[in-house]
Design goal:
Order of helices and strands: EHHEEEHEHE
Strand content: 15-25%
Number of strands: 6
Radius of gyration: 21 Å
Largest sheet: 2 strands, antiparallel
Amino acid sequence: MPIPNNSTFPVTYKDPELADIHRQMIENAFPLISLPRGRGLPREAILAYMRDLSVTLMMHAVRSVLFFKHEAYGNENEYRFLQIYRADLPPPQVKLRARAYALVKYREFDWGNVAPAALKRIIVGPAANYEKAARFARDCMRAPQIDTVEIACSTIPYRAT
């Protein structure tokens, strides 16, 4: 059932595909960069045009990376859940979580009640302590009564010491 301002999509793990998308964006931007040249436009109009062009290009570049992750993580078969809100209003129900030297903003997503069978496997990342992370994941699964989730360790060779 569609939910306004929400999207769910699989992550793509193809670095050459993302590089190709970025290459095409840059190649298509080159003619637009020189478009104002020789038209006798005021400096302010050219600066406004270049600002809009750079913001548009940056927005598309940032948006493109939402859909990709490095090939080394391909075994994760990850899906992303994206919620979009108006830029001129704060998003609803933002919470804060303390990290080593920062407060991280986040929003809770109640997937356990929305689609409890959606989660099939949790892969503990290469920098995490597997035992602690797996225990935490199992504790989290108790709350929504989900006990069929596989917890696995990432096969990426990097490990924190």
